[in-house]
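Audit log entry. Action: structure prediction of a protein-small molecule complex. Ligand: pyridoxal-5'-phosphate. The ligand was supplied as SMILES and no pocket hint was given, so placement is left entirely to the predictor. Protonation state taken as written. Sequence taken verbatim from the request; no trimming, no tag removal. Recorded inputs:
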Amino acid sequence: MSQLTASPTAHPAERILLGPGPSPVPHRVLRALSAPTLGHLDPQYLAIMDETCAMLREVFRTKNALTFPVSGTGMAGMECTATNLTEPGDEVIVCVNGVFGLRMTDVFERCGAVVHRIDAPWGEVFSFEQITAALEQFPKSKIVAIVQAETSTGAHQPIEGLADIVHARGALLLVDAVTSLGGHDLRVDEWGIDAIYSGTQKCLSCPPGLSPVSFSERALARMDARKTKPQSWYLDVSMLRKYYTGGGGGGRVYHHTAPINMTYALREALTIVLEEGLQARIDRHTAMHQRLRQGLTELGLSYIPSRSLHSLNCIRIPDGANDAGVRSRLLNEWGIEIGAGLGVMAGKAWRIGLMGHGSSARNVDLVLSALRTALK
Ligand SMILES: *Cc1c(COP(=O)(O)O)cnc(C)c1O
């Protein structure tokens, strides 16, 4: 063997990705990635993009015309929605109960917004009463931003019904659905969500690189009424929509070179979601979460959040267990990746992701068996 092929970096290992993302990618999706690269204005490619956006609408359960994959990972979706919906001096309410809510405050501050941060303990979720009180205290707020699936703590925030409260005060509802899209119940139109972003590498089981977003008519009207340009050129929706939807007049216009092959991968990943059936997929995530929870309970392990996600299981590290030691043993002996605690949970939690393709009985039983051995 040559030096190069012998190198451990020459061929990435086939890990079993049961952490907070990325999740395991099916071979069908990897094969789709390797199809010939088309030009970003080739009619064939534009048709593929249109199909991808149509499937995204199904998965988001929306009719929103402005639904497309932002070029970039989930954080690009966060920046895209925040940047386009805020002008300097706008007041926004940001709900913080973990790392991703905290990041939203940072992103909105960089947009020049006046951020009213409200907090819930990490691992807990917000009551609608608390959000109503914040809207009464800060009546000029133009946005309420909240995370449906807080991947840092595993807490599952209820969203249904919240838009009524937010809209009654003239604000828009912005939701982070990075770890819920394709794994949890999520209904953009029925729930009245105005702006939403997700990521490809969590419950959609596609490699990281795109961030599906969707904007309601209300959000579109807000963007059309802007007096200033969004601070980001790359993420400016008024230009992006000309490319993705041909909307805004003038037909399709080059803005930036779309990540062509990633679009193939996303289209294939969404095809797999719709072949399984969105509801069947969500039910599978529920069943696998229950299977894992039962096994963890038998091992004496307990959950941190009182309302746990199905896609991300955040458990307390038991007394006397070696955090890094157990994780590296899982990785080296069984090829299993699980997540460490993030932020205030560092050293206190393990995060077991059961996302998309990774949410299977085989993986649940394997990680339980590995944990049983590693904790002995
Ligand atoms: C993973 C994640 C993000 C960030 O996505 P990246 O793809 O890492 O940029 C944002 N919000 C939540 C809730 C996430 O889980």
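Audit: result stored. Residues 2-23+278-374 form a domain with the Aspartate Aminotransferase, domain 1 fold (CATH 3.90.1150.10). Residues 21, 73-75, 100, 147, 149, 151, 176, 178-179, 199, 208 surround pyridoxal-5'-phosphate (CB under 6 Å).
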